[in-house]
User: Fold these one by one.
Assistant:
Number 1:
Amino acid sequence: MTRLLAIVLGVALFGCGTTGTSNKPGPPQKVDRLAELHTQLGLGYLREGRYETAWKRLSRALEIEPHYAAAHSAMALLHEQLDEPQEAEAHYRRALALNPSDSASHNNFGRFLCAQGRSTDAEAEFLKAVANPLYDSPEIAYTNAGLCLYAGGDLGKAEGYLRRALQINPNIPVALLKMASVTLQKGHPLPARAYLQRYQALGRQSAESLWLGVRIERLLGDQNAAASYTMLLKNNFPDSNETRLLLESDSNQKPSGR
């Protein structure tokens, strides 16, 4: 049940599929089988975007079993999707009060708090997730912590968490991309190139990665590589913010005419 919940919750974690989590807590919570079934159905409807039907199923699960942590976690996500943060937070807190060893819920609550701009509280939840020695996906919580701190401008902490994530799993695309960005911002284009190449080796390409490649190669003096990234960015993502930044950069570099 925890794994099923994690798969659905993972969809919303920083917009990438790598953020789904699961863990192996202590003794499983004893719940009514019908409440569990309604929760599973509610999660399915939630995944399909059928929010009203999901709400009915999850509400029924909680009517049958008010102390069912997984149902509260699922209801928290539903309220997030409905842009009801107060209700979402209440259900996250209830779920964790009922099952404090559930690393998946700590991770997802951390993601929620980060989206609310509460990076300090979010970091604490991510650390609670990885503190559980039975958590089988700590790299996910470390990645989310790194992304959260990166968004908050704390590059030092962000780098530390992203490194921990990549030590556990070297092939997390979003962690590799953000490490390339962090390393470049710290003035180290050569290792930034290495992180970006590892990201690209996974078959990934985005406006963010291409713009990052342009800046890296310009700093390293490889004009051919920079031109290649430039062409790909303009052709594949012409309306992106990164292409706008590229055009602004090119305009600023042109000598003014007399």
Note: The first helix runs from residue 2 to 10.
Number 2:
Amino acid sequence: MKIKYTLIHQDKKTKARYGTLATNYGTFETPMFMPVGTQATVKTLDTDEVKEIKAGVILANTYHLWLRPGEDIVSKAGGLHKFMNYDGPILTDSGGFQVFSLASPKDISEEGVTFKNHLNGDKLLLTPEKSIMIQNKLDSDIAMSFDECPPASANYEYMKKSIERTLRWAKRGKKVHSNENQSLFGIIQGGAYEDLRKYSATETVKMDFDGYSIGGVANDNESKEDMYLAIDYSIPYIPSDKPRYLMGVGEPEDLFEGVERGIDMFDCVLPTRLARHGHAFTKNGKINLRNAKYKEDFTPVEEGCDCKCCQHYTKAYIRHLLVADETLGQRLLSIHNLRFLIRLMEEMRIAIKEDRFTELKEEFYKNYQKRK
């Protein structure tokens, strides 16, 4: 079956929504944070650990899996679920973000995008049809349309032309989409231009996708205000019975701001990337476990956290692992950071059902020193 979103309750003071997402691998509550598994693995974690942190949907990257090991090998293995031994729902991105980071404007044509393979320098062409056909073979539960990812700094005229191209590409991709068990999401672009977001959203919705993503908010140095405007300008035109996905966003404060505006799904590499550099999320802000002040700190990363890291290990031990360059330190912090965001979403869901989302947000911001 394809995914099915059900809206159960909206917070009385905000646009925050509590709902469920039914998939072939169970039904999961929203809003949700989705761990990123770029290379068909959430970095340093095995799939049992991914389940232990109560992850639902996880992501894999079309571009990277196309290059290595190749979609045909994944297909021969029985698809991504069997290949990586994960019996939960998987979303694959289109590869667009990675491709556009490797291409220059002159490499973008109506046909697709020409770029150099980052592994060996070979010249490659990725088209909307190719992206969808790769995702069909990967057999993810949710596939993403291939879109152009213009920088937030793009001027109005370029952004408008880019949206028109993305709409044409969306139609081409939808036309060749052939995996009956795989849902396909459309992507809304338009920077911080209100009329362009409205146009992109209304035209994308006309194509009747299974869900809708707000793109272009995490691929440049755009301001937080522009990110929030992009959401505000897009949300009114997305059907209430379809899931809304904000791509590439994972700062705790941005999760609150997104949920408050009506977003259901988020993903980001941030929690595992921070962990690899020794940083951990806490309700009082981010901390750097490499700091000497934790050398004799025999308390957990965060009191009250139910993750394996906090239940069994101390800051002093994790600091020792990090300083000694032991991979276990990165693994434990990855587990904690992911569980932190997933627990945060759990708290938001409860607050939405009880119509106290605003109160939860204010309480979190009062304590979270990283707030900008």
Note: Residues 225 and 280 are 25 Å apart (CA to CA).
